[in-house]
Amino acid sequence: MKSMKRLKPRRITNKVMSRLLKSNDLIVLLGARQVGKTSIMYLLIDNLLQVEKVESNRVFYFDLEDMNLLDVVNRGVEEFIAFLAAKGADLKERCFVFLDEIQYMENPSNFLKIIADHHKEISLVVSGSSSFSIKTKFKDSLAGRKRVFEIYPLDFGEFLEFKDRKDLAGFWDTGNWEKARFFEGDFLRYFEEYVIFGGLPRVSLLPTREDNVEYLKDVVNSYIKKDIKDLFRIDNPYAFNKAIKLLALQAGNSLNFTNLTTMCGISRRTLERYLFILESTFFIRLINPFYSNKIKEVTKMPKLYFMDTGIRNIIVGDLNSLEGRRDSGSLVENSVFLMLLTGKGPLDEIYYWRTKAGAEMDFVLKGEGERWRGYEVKYRPFEEAKITRSTRSYINEYSPDLTCICTKNFYQDKINMDLMGLSGLNDQSKLIFLPVFFLSNRPYPSVPWLTN
C-alpha cells in the first residue's frame, strides 16, 4: 500500500467518508483508470485508522488485479470470510473492506448481496473502471443498497492544491476576485498547464514535460489494452483506434455520424457501439442539444468532450501551449465542460443550444427547480463587457437565471441588462463575465444561489 504521507487530499473523500460512517450501504467508486480511485480508498483507510481510531484488524484493502485475491473472492462469500479470519479480522466488530477493481469479479452482484444480507458486520467499499461492466454485473438485487460516487480527474482547485498553491486554490474556492486579480498571471499559467496536460492526479505531480508525455502515453496504451481488450471484444482494432483519433480531433464539436463512419470504414451501428464503449469506460462524454422549438433549433447531433484533456492531446499528438493552436478554443471549452460536470448537482443536466440559423450557447445547465444557466466560452482578452448576437438571442429567448461569459482574464459581475440590449427579462436573470480559470460552482456576490 502507498505511503499515506505522500497522498494529496481529494475533495470528494469527505463526502464518501460521511456516507461510510453513517450507513452500511455498499459504496461504489466509479471512474477511469488513473483518476485516483485507489488513492481515495487509501485516504479513507487512513481516516478510519488515524481519525476514527478503528483498529487495524478491522480495516482491509484488496486489489483484485491480483489473480490470487481474485480467485479467493470468486470462490464465494464463505471462502472470503474464512480468508478475512485468516488475515486476523475481528469479525465480532464492524469491519471495513475495500475491494479495488471489482469489474474483474465473475459475479460481484451475488457476492455483494450475500454480504449485505447476511454479514452486517462488513462494510464494503468497491471500485470499478467500467460503468458498463459494473451495471451489467450488478443486478437489480442491489437496488437501494448501494451509493455510487463517480470519480473525476482533478478540478482546477484541486490541481492548484496538488501544485502546492493553496493560496490560489483558496481564492478560487471562495470566489475572492479582489485578491485573485493580483495573481492573474499565475492563474493563467496553471490553467493553461491544466488544459494541455489534463487533470489526472499524477500529471500534476510529475516534474517534467517529458515525464508527463510518457505517463499519458502509458495511460492511453493501458486503457486500450486493459479496459478494451479485457472487457469488450473489438473485432477491428484498426478502425477502433482510428475512430478514437478522429473523435479526439472533434472534441468540443457536434458529431457528424456520416463523416465518421465513412472515414473509419465502419457502419453507424459499429460507431455507436464504439461511442458506448468509450462512454462506459469514462473516456468521453456526449451531451445533447437543448431545444423547445423543433423548427428553429437543432434537436439532434450530440457534442463530444473528452473526460481528460491531457489524454485527448496525447491522442492527437499535440501538447504545445495554447497560443497559436487552432484547437485552443475547443480545448478550453472541453475544460469548461469538465468544470461544470464536476461541480454540478446530482439533478443537474448539461446541454448545448444551437439554432438552425447558427446562434449558439456552448452550455446550458438545467438545475433543480427549473433553474437555467448558460455558459459561453470566449477565451480572449476583453476590454469591456460585450456579448455576441448569439448570446443575446439565447438570453432574449429563454431569460435564464444566469448567463456566464467565460473570458481569458476579464471579470465583471454587475451588468446593466438594458445597456446590453437585454430587456423584458425576469428580475432574477443575471449576466456575469468571468475568467475561465475562476469558473466554479460557488456563490458569487451578485449571484448568491449559484452554488448547489
Automatic annotation (TrEMBL):
Pfam families from the UniProt entry: AAA_14, DUF4143
Location of the AAA+ ATPase domain: 23-142
Superkingdom of this protein's organism: Bacteria
Signal peptide location: none
Alphabetical list of Gene3D superfamilies matching this protein: P-loop containing nucleotide triphosphate hydrolases (3.40.50.300)
PANTHER family: AAA+ ATPASE DOMAIN-CONTAINING PROTEIN, CONSERVED PROTEIN
The protein's name in its UniProt record: AAA+ ATPase domain-containing protein
Organism of this sequence: Candidatus Infernicultor aquiphilus
